[in-house]
Write a structure and sequence with these properties.
With 108 residues, the protein is α+β, with helices and mostly antiparallel strands. The protein has 1 helix and 8 strands, in the order H-E-E-E-E-E-E-E-E.
């Protein structure tokens, strides 16, 4: 059930974030819908504080999705260690997101 919630949130969040001012091709993620999945979109948690031009959402206890919607690299304040799921990088503290790029991290 937990995995299916993450899939549904990614199905909603990634195309939503990528649609803001993007001139690049879109990334679409699809999943199978199950009638017992939670349909309450209000349960999506507010993300951490981020610099202007960056959007962030907490997907679950250990996962955060970021999108830099500005035309310049942005440094994300972060304490602790994390791993980038999209770019296969490890972070220890603050990290940067390139212009118009997403980042999906897992807290270690």
């Amino acid at each position: 059930m937990k995995t299916s919630k993450i899939r549904i949130l990614l199905l909603i969040a990634i195309p939503f974030f990528l649609s803001f001012g993007s001139k690049a091709q879109g990334l679409y993620v699809g999943t199978n819908y199950h009638p017992h999945d939670d349909k309450n979109i209000e349960k999506i948690k507010k993300g951490p504080e981020v610099p202007t031009g960056v959007m962030a959402r907490q997907i679950d206890k250990n996962h955060y999705l970021y999108l830099n919607g500005s035309g310049e690299p942005k440094e994300i304040p972060f304490k602790g260690k994390a791993k980038s799921i999209l770019f296969d990088k490890n972070y220890d503290g603050n990290f940067k997101i390139a212009p118009y790029e997403p980042e999906f991290i897992e807290i270690k």
